[in-house]
């Protein structure tokens, strides 16, 4: 009986094998061509492979290929610079495939759902699409990361309203922030920069973790964030957004786009205007400490840009202008005070930016390109902290010339070029003057090796000649290994270099009676970052695990252990020392069990240490302040077809973090025996409902729905001119629950 | 504890939204003046966010759109008017002239038939 079963089994197997081999005996042949200019030209070296299998080949010198047939019915043809084509194959024999040129110097990216992972990029990159941005409904870049597991946003103090991001356990200053690949939010703009880009201007945000590409410079340490704005040639003609919240903040964003001239259905000249106006004029003091919980402010902000596109040339140029005015501090004069003085924080920022991006394209060689990025920035910021004034001016000129080509075939590509940076800073805080001019010409080369869709390695290095700090050599390495189409491993390593701007980066700490002391001449910060990540896709769902370490060779230490001083000094240590480092590990699960229902669960562990004690000639390694060790993010979203109704719910758990000891009776006499204080963990809940109509969207939502606030975020608010006043050490939300309502109106989109 | 209660509260709201039984629906077929895939996308999307409409599918071969709707909230006359406002004919209701003229050239009635 048993043997009979076996025989049947074997014969079934045998027939199956017979059938399959018979069915797929013949190879599938074809040719891959480009017919952009009406002429047929062979594409050499294009990858041809069956979806879901390891069977792959490449086209030869005539563009021809021959591939064994498999059970997969879908053939994918891809080539750098062209849109990949997927063909359904049943019994076709001789194929003729025309690939469409991408016509852009960008990598191919799959953008679906609300969280996307750039599958082809050797850099670990998450893409926050406009769909994910709509989940947070509001309002500027600092709120755009609400549903992102990697980036967290926090207030840095209880007065200025400035927000800071954290990535891999380190402050946002260690992240290179680009707007359309132009370094933008750097230098003095790091203070309020996240408030300078309204959410409705943003098309998508790419969050890259770990060392970035050397093409964009040497400043990226823990990652790079690139913001893509609404494009004038593909946006809606009119996009109007209004927003109001329960605190009295009002916002209007109006985006206009117009195609001026088009040829053969493709836009040639287009122009876009992105505008923003917002204000908050109510007195908010929910904790009754006679300090504004949020500063009153007004912001006016716009970008005007022009775009030209032809087969051979793509050019963009534009101008940005920003004015931002803030008033915080005490609301009324303390009635018990004998003198007639009031503690006020004011800031007025004006910023003008001009930029241009030009790319020379080679229509039949989409892998080849020459690009030039130019930008100029004037940033002028004036502030008052009680009696202490701060003036900061920054003038920047930046240029980057990039040439991209292949060596032999597209398995070997390279980018090379030269860059130039001129940075002029002039800062004065009370009676401390800081001035410097940086002139940095540099050159870079980045080589990419690609083996089918399996393996990609990017090796890059740049050398910059800094007028103040000598020659800077920056190497970076990225490796992507696709075990199979659904499993990917990434490794990255690289060095970063940046000049810190103590006042702009620790702006919130200036809202205090601390005396600012520089113990050293501030040296540039240098760090090495190493990382590893694993991505697994199953269906539409995905699982991401990553581990990163940042090790500082030199770090600027802002020491706030002593309640009456803010010390700045250089850290001690070398590249492999365990003096100043940040370890970060994260696991993220994106689950889409059924269409239109999305879950995201993420846990992040960070372990960040600093070596401090120089003011007392001591040496002690302690946890870095204000960095929560544990963070959990949970997000669920559900939508009806076409987003007719959409519900979204987010919960964040922020673990305990070390905070300075600000008890008015505390005497700081030693680093070694100082008591270590922790702030409690807290939960933050946000939710939103939106309804789409033909042209309108309306949304209503709430932030901090559980109404958690930090008690007494300001130390001795009654005596702001006393010796222990400190509003720069807030660790949690200062304002409670916020309910908001907004509308979006879109007219003249493509669909 | 308070937070947990809060979460449970929200979870109930969400499950309430998602598990709700679909209401009884009706179906209507309407001949439109759609031309191409873009028209199909536009009509299906705009109908998708219109009150009372559960779903729709436009067949580009015969230009007939099949609309599934909730008869308590809408009726075929209202649906025809909605299609007219998007810029297309729906049976006897001809396209709203203003909406039609605002469509891209390739989607207007004067455009030559094309597939994509």
From TrEMBL, chain A:
Major subcellular site: membrane
Compartments it resides in: Cell outer membrane
Gene Ontology molecular function, alphabetical: siderophore uptake transmembrane transporter activity
Residues making up the signal peptide according to the UniProt record: 1-25
Domain of life: Bacteria
Domain TonB-dependent receptor-like beta-barrel positions: 290-705
GO CC annotations on file: cell outer membrane
Any GO BP: siderophore transmembrane transport
UniProtKB keywords: Cell outer membrane, Membrane, Receptor, Signal, TonB box, Transmembrane, Transmembrane beta strand, Transport
Residue span, TonB-dependent receptor plug domain: 121-223
Similarity field: Belongs to the TonB-dependent receptor family.
The name this protein goes by in its record: TonB-dependent receptor
Gene source species: Emticicia agri
From TrEMBL, chain B:
GO MF terms, alphabetically ordered: metal ion binding
InterPro entries named in the record: HMA_dom, HMA_dom_sf
Pfam families registered for this protein in UniProt: HMA
Name of the protein in question: Heavy-metal-associated domain-containing protein
Ranges of residues in domain HMA: 23-91
Coiled-coil residue spans: none
């Amino acid at each position: 009986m048993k043997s009979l079963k076996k025989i049947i089994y074997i014969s079934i197997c045998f027939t199956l094998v017979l059938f399959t081999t018979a069915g797929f005996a013949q190879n599938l042949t074809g040719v891959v061509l480009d017919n952009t200019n009406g002429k047929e030209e062979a594409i050499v070296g294009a990858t041809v492979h069956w979806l879901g299998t390891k069977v792959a080949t490449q086209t030869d010198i005539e563009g021809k290929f021959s591939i064994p047939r498999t059970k997969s019915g879908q053939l994918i043809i891809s080539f750098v610079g062209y849109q990949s084509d997927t063909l359904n194959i049943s019994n076709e024999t001789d194929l003729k495939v025309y690939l469409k040129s991408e016509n852009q110097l960008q990598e191919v990216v799959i953008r679906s759902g609300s969280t996307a992972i750039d599958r082809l990029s050797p850099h670990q990159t998450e893409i926050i699409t406009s769909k994910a941005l709509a989940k947070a409904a509001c309002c500027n870049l600092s709120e755009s990361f609400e549903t992102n597991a990697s980036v967290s946003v926090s207030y840095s103090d209880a007065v200025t309203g400035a927000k800071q991001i954290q990535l891999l356990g380190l402050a946002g200053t260690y992240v290179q922030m680009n707007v359309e690949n132009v370094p933008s939010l750097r230098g003095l703009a790091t203070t309020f920069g996240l408030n300078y880009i309204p959410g409705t201007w943003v098309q998508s945000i790419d969050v890259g973790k770990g060392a970035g590409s050397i093409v964009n410079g040497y400043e990226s340490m823990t990652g790079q964030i690139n913001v893509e704005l609404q494009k004038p040639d593909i946006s809606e003609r009119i996009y109007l957004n209004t927003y109001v919240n329960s605190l009295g903040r009002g916002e209007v964003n109006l985006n206009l786009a117009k195609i001026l001239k088009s040829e053969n259905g493709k836009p040639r000249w287009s122009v876009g205007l992105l505008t923003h106006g917002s204000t908050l004029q109510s007195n908010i003091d929910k904790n009754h400490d006679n300090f504004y919980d949020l500063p009153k402010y007004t912001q006016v902000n716009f970008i005007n840009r022009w775009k030209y596109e032809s087969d051979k040339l793509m050019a963009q140029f534009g101008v940005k202008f920003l004015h931002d005015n803030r008033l915080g501090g005490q609301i009324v004069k303390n009635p018990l005070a004998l003198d007639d003085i009031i503690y006020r924080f004011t800031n007025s920022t004006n910023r003008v930016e001009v930029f241009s991006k030009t790319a020379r394209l080679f229509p039949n060689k989409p892998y080849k390109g020459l690009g030039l990025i130019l930008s100029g920035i004037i940033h002028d910021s004036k502030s008052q902290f009680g009696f202490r004034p701060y003036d900061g001016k920054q003038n920047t000129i930046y240029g980057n010339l990039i040439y991209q080509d292949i060596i032999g075939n597209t398995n070997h590509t390279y980018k090379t070029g030269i860059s130039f940076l001129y940075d002029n800073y002039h800062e004065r805080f009370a009676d401390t003057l800081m001035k410097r001019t940086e002139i940095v010409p540099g050159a870079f080369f980045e080589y990419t090796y690609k083996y089918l869709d399996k393996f990609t390695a990017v090796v890059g290095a740049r050398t910059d000649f800094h007028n103040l700090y000598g020659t800077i050599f920056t190497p970076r390495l990225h490796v992507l290994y696709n075990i199979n189409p659904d499993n990917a491993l990434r490794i990255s390593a690289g060095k970063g270099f940046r000049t810190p701007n103590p006042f702009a980066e620790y702006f919130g700490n200036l809202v205090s009676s601390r005396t600012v002391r520089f113990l050293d001449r501030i040296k540039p910060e240098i760090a090495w970052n190493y990382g590893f990540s694993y991505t697994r896709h199953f269906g539409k769902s995905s699982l991401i695990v990553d581990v990163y370490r940042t090790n500082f060779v030199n770090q600027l230490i802002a020491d706030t252990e002593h309640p009456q001083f803010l010390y700045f000094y250089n850290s001690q240590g070398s590249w492999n020392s365990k003096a100043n480092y940040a370890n970060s590990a994260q696991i993220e699960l994106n689950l889409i069990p059924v269409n239109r229902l999305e879950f995201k669960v993420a846990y992040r562990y960070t372990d960040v240490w600093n070596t401090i004690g120089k003011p007392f000639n001591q040496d002690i390694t302690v946890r870095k302040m204000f960095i929560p060790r544990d963070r959990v993010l949970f997000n669920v979203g559900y939508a009806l077809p076409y987003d007719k109704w959409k519900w979204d719910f987010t919960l964040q758990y922020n673990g305990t973090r070390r905070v300075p000891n600000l008890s008015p009776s505390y005497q700081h006499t030693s680093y070694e025996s100082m008591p270590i204080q922790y702030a409690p963990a807290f939960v933050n809940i946000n939710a939103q409902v939106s309804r789409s109509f033909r042209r309108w969207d309306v949304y209503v939502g709430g932030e901090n729905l559980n109404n958690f606030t930090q008690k007494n975020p300001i130390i001795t608010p009654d005596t702001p001119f006393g010796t222990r006043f400190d509003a720069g050490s807030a660790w949690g939300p200062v304002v409670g629950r916020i309910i908001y309502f907004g509308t979006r109106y879109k007219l003249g989109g493509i669909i | 504890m308070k937070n947990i209660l809060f979460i449970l509260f929200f979870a109930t709201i969400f499950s309430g939204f998602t598990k709700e039984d679909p209401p009884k629906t009706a179906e209507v077929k309407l001949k439109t003046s759609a031309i191409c895939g873009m028209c199909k996308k536009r009509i299906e999307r705009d109908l998708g966010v219109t009150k009372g409409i559960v779903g729709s599918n436009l067949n580009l071969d015969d230009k007939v759109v099949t609309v599934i709707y909730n008869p308590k909230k809408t009726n075929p006359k209202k649906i025809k008017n909605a299609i007219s406002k998007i810029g297309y004919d729906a049976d006897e209701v001809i396209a709203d002239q203003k909406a039609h003229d605002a469509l891209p050239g390739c989607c207007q009635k004067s455009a030559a038939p094309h597939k994509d």
